[in-house]
Design goal:
Number of strands: 35
Distance between the termini: 80 Å
Mean pLDDT: 91
Shape: flat
Bound molecules: acetamide
Number of domains: 4
Number of helices: 18
Strand content: 25-35%
Largest sheet: 8 strands, parallel
Low-confidence stretches: 1-27, 221-227
Length: 765
């Protein structure tokens, strides 16, 4: 009965709307972020050469909201007309107060007519963005068809953002504009600009010109490889800054795309660039500092009055340029060590009755908040502003996990959730070999997509304080826009959907189905996105014939994998993967998932076949449990470890122990060389070997040393090659002994601790 009534209702509705039939079958959504509700139906809207677009052009906000559509249609050869009489197709755009959500919209596509309604111009802009995603990438006006659909859409969260750190590496205004365009396509509405940090001050201050004369440039010599990566070599100064006029223009450029730019000025820490420019603001005046900036300059402002005068003046200049309600004042990662001994800070604590430096930090942020509030604005700070007590009106940006966000929401403070494990775009997005160096961790696209910004611990009323979510790209390791794009996309697209779409209806499977065609739009816009939609797994094994085989997995059903063995990029004409591939000679295997004509995931592996390949090996001391995934055979399976990290199956690792492996070739053979690689990454306690010895034997009992030498400490981090040669001898057993460096020397990360030793393939010939 219920079904009959539904059918009748459908029939009446269809008749009213003049549609032959509406299909309530599974929607075939193409839009990212997934709309809250959409119903696709049979029939289509055919764009005519003269399509009429109606909206109130006197409304400047509407004009902005509609302009992406007008521009796109004109590119398709559509002459936008105003006259009903001549138009075969029409698009009607209007504000409608009956739509409740501020950013919501209703998009209806019928044969001959499209309508977009929203309460605000922002909503219209989002309706336009959805419509643009339904348009093909290329077509002639007269053949351009759109599916009939009714979309009723609104965002789950009011705050949907991306942060870019332009302090560690300066990024051009052109790139920032490109990024803003891309964020707008995904209905993101906040762009958080991290304008200052220890490595660079990027904001032009008229009052304090030294900030950009000194603080915007740094010596290229890395402080250490993890913290100042990829700066210019030698003494070359690296850096730049944005003029106030450039930033005003950028604010307008963003506003035209319904995006608010939130400026961030770091305090009290991460401030070497400012303290190098105005040393008097530090606890220890470093004017006489013999070291070039940014070495040897402390990281935190002193809490003396001069600092607050300075910061208030800076914030005034910032607020004059950025109309954002929110001003980000950081507060993260202050060590506060100097505050414990500095007479100014000790006096401040006494005078204010503060028990410790945490309370002094709280005083600092509260005093800054008062100033920002006095100008009618509000502050955002990172988790650490919770230490010593939150400033009364502060919003917390939670990054160290989700606990800070939970605490703040429970205290009825607004929260933006950016936990590192899901939202930090400087993490690796794949373990695949060849990934560009990243900060660390592994935050795959799937992991980012799986994020739900509402912590389970919150009650429904506390959950209201969660304003939304944001992806953060820190740029210590990101010297170029191309690499920034690689790290941001497509993870930021996943976060756009996390921030917009209902939690109940979105799935990763559907997201991927919509993302693959969307990537073609990114191709057209020349976006250097990462191609790791899945995580292809390659397992090396030895088959019953004693051959090395590579098996591929990790990709859902329905997606096809192709591969080459000569290091060329696979196409659909390459071999289709169906079963483990036998490796017959030295090869570079590249495996790729190709869908819709584009590569959406890719993996590379090098194989080297040699006399010990697929033979057996005994290890005197087993590797550490967490670094023994490939088993002992990893040393002789023909498969080389990742060049850039030691976490794959082909690297075996020992802590403070000697590598001692004996290979059995099965029968005596002439051997004259060993080539191998040790991983070298002192920043992670990993050091290449101190020395290597090779011994041979006919019976496995009596060994004779044939070669040995010490290894120089490699100049660079990564896989370090090592080789030994000796006059050819016949031997069945080959023993390789690699001694670790032992205790890490003073002046290095982990000094005094035992170094790790990581060993790759033992190539015997
Ligand atoms: C941060 O990552 N230091 C906020």
């Amino acid at each position: 009965m219920q079904n009959f009534i539904n059918m009748l209702r459908t029939f009446i509705l269809s008749a009213l709307l003049g549609i032959a039939s509406i299909s309530y079958a599974q929607s075939s959504d193409r839009i990212i972020p997934l709309p809250a509700k959409s119903k696709y139906s049979n029939g289509s809207f055919v764009l005519a050469k003269n399509t009429a677009v109606y909206f109130d052009e006197r409304d400047s906000a509407l004009l902005l909201a509609v302009s992406p559509l007008s521009i796109t249609l004109e590119k398709f050869g559509v002459k936008l007309s105003k006259s009903i009489a001549t138009a075969k197709a029409s698009i009607h755009i209007e504000l409608d107060n009956s739509i409740a959500a501020e950013e919501g919209y209703r998009l209806v596509i019928l044969p001959g007519k499209i309508s977009i309604k929203a309460k605000t111009a922002t909503g219209i802009f989002y309706g336009v963005q959805s419509l643009l995603q339904l348009l093909p990438l290329q077509a002639k006006a007269t053949t351009l068809k759109l599916p009939c659909v009714t979309i009723e859409d609104e965002p789950r969260f009011a705050y949907r953002g991306v942060m870019l750190d332009v302090a560690r590496h300066y990024m051009s205004i052109e790139f920032l504009k490109k990024l803003l365009n891309l964020l707008a396509m995904q209905k993101m509405n906040r762009f958080h600009l991290h304008l200052t940090d220890s490595q660079g001050w990027r904001f032009e201050s008229k009052k304090y010109p030294k900030l950009t004369q000194i603080g915007a440039y740094r010596k290229g010599t890395p402080l250490n490889t993890t913290y100042d990566y990829n700066s210019r070599p030698g003494d070359t100064l690296y850096g730049s800054f944005y003029t106030q006029q450039q930033l005003r223009d950028l604010v307008k450029y963003a506003a035209d795309r319904f995006i608010t730019i939130i400026p961030e000025i770091e305090m009290p820490a991460h401030s070497k660039s400012a303290l190098a420019s105005y040393p008097g603001l530090a606890c220890v005046d470093s004017s006489g500092n013999p070291f070039p900036y940014p070495q040897q300059v402390q990281d935190e402002y002193c809490t003396k009055d001069e600092t607050f005068n300075f910061l208030n003046n800076i914030l005034d200049e910032v607020m004059d340029i950025f109309p954002s309600q929110y001003i980000h004042v950081a507060g993260d990662e202050a060590g506060k060590a100097n505050w414990k001994t500095c007479p100014h800070d000790i006096k401040r604590m006494k005078e204010q009755g503060l028990a410790n430096v945490e309370e002094l930090q709280s005083y600092f942020i509260k005093r800054i908040e008062q100033h920002v509030n006095s100008r009618g604005r509000s502050i955002i700070g990172w988790d650490e502003i919770l230490q010593g007590g939150l400033a009364p009106n502060a919003t917390v940006m939670s990054w160290t996990g989700i606990e800070g966000g939970i605490k703040a929401a429970q205290q009825h403070h607004n929260v933006i959730m950016t936990p590192g494990g899901y939202c930090y775009l400087d993490h690796y997005q794949s373990n695949a070999p060849g990934e560009p160096v990243a900060f660390g961790g592994l935050t795959t696209l799937a992991k980012t997509y799986s994020y739900n910004p509402i912590p389970e611990e919150l009650t429904a009323s506390e959950a209201k304080y969660i304003l939304g979510t944001q992806g953060n790209l820190w740029t210590e390791y990101i010297p170029t826009p191309a690499k920034a794009e690689y790290m941001i996309f497509p993870r930021a697209i996943a976060l756009a959907e996390v921030g917009w779409s209902p939690q109940e209806t979105r799935t990763y499977e559907s997201f991927i189905t919509r993302l693959i065609p969307y990537l073609k739009r990114l191709d057209k816009l020349k976006v250097n996105y990462s191609k790791h939609l899945f995580e292809i797994k390659l397992k090396t094994a030895i088959n019953t014939k004693g051959q090395v085989t590579a098996s591929l997995g990790g990709v859902p059903k329905g997606y096809k994998m192709y591969y080459t063995l000569d290091g060329t990029i696979p196409t659909v004409k390459s071999s289709l993967y169906v079963k483990p591939v036998a490796i017959h000679k030295n090869s570079t295997m590249i495996a790729a998932v190709i869908s819709n004509g584009i590569i959406v995931d890719q993996l590379k592996k090098n194989f080297v076949l040699h006399k010990a390949t697929a033979k057996s090996i005994e290890l005197e001391t087993p590797p550490a449990k967490q670094y023994s995934k490939g088993g002992n055979a990893a040393c002789i399976n023909g498969s080389l470890g990742n060049d850039e990290n030691f976490s794959d199956d082909d690297w075996l690792g020992w802590n403070g122990k000697t590598f001692n492996g004996t290979i059995d070739l099965g029968k005596a053979q002439q051997v004259s060389s060993l080539q191998t690689r040790f991983f070298h990454q002192p920043s992670s306690w990993v050091w290449a070997a101190k020395n290597v010895t090779v011994l041979v034997s006919a019976d496995g009992k009596n060994f004779t040393e044939v070669a040995g030498k010490s290894m120089d400490v490699p100049a660079n981090e990564g896989a370090a090659k090592f080789s030994l040669n000796w006059p050819a001898v016949a031997a069945r057993y080959i023993k390789v002994i690699a001694e670790p460096v032992g205790k890490i020397a003073a002046g290095n990360v982990g000094a005094g601790d035992e170094a790790w030793l990581f060993v790759d393939e033992l190539i015997v010939d």
